[in-house]
Amino acid sequence: MNAFTRIMTGSTSERTSASDPKSFRERGARIGGVLGGFLRRTSRTGFVLYALALGALLGLASADFATRGGYPFGGTTIGAWTAWPRTGSADADPYSRAVNSRRGEIPLAIGEGLLLTAAVDDSGRTLEAGCSYAIGGVVPPARAWTLTIAGRGAADPAKTRLREGFTSTEVLRSTDDRFVIAVSQDVQSGNWLPMPRPRGPVRLALRLYDTPVAASVGSLDRNTLPAITRLGCSR
Hints:
The chain has three helices and ten strands; from the N terminus they run ααββαββββββββ. A six-stranded antiparallel beta sheet has the order 1-2-3-9-5-6, with no helix packed on it. The chain has a four-stranded mixed beta sheet with strand order 8-7-4-10, with no helix packed on it. The model is unreliable at 3-18 (pLDDT under 50). It is elongated and about 110 Å long. The chain is of the alpha+beta class. It has two domains: 2-67; 76-233, Sandwich (Jelly Rolls), CATH 2.60.120.600. This is DUF1214 domain-containing protein. InterPro entries: DUF1214 (IPR010621), DUF1214_C_sf (IPR037049), UCP009471 (IPR012038).
């Protein structure tokens, strides 16, 4: 076989091999494997990113829910009121610290005083801005105290800011040293505390300063705290 014959035979053999269906299938399988691996890696990466984004979203939502209202843990319920003796202590739980940071408040430390909050009346019904209440009776012994009311959410900037609370030095009392504070949308005579917004839940906060009950919350009972009585609600 001369050179010309070998060249012609070799070229024919190469063309035949290149056009072999089996060769095409092998190449297609290799390309498919590469593409499949790429798609699997891309799908896995996308799933991881989706899981991270979902976890971050749920974490932010749960943190917002846990710190939007009052303290979620560590309270002692006495009737309609809940005492929070450890929110200002060095070992306060992380949620209490987060609530304080979100509110921008400095909590009362142990020995300085005691915070009590109420989100329901004496009948266990949620305090509503559309209702009227009478808060009164007695307050545990303390050098001074304040009673404030607030609602969830930011206040309306277009609305004139009215009184948000009373102190023990300015509240009007009866001859037996008892007092009654009217909480409602409509102006009342005497001690009147306006609702912070037209509708929605509200919360009362009673702060006792330099009080002996701060060291022993167990000494409190319903008869030593102000009563919260619903008078009526607007339709």
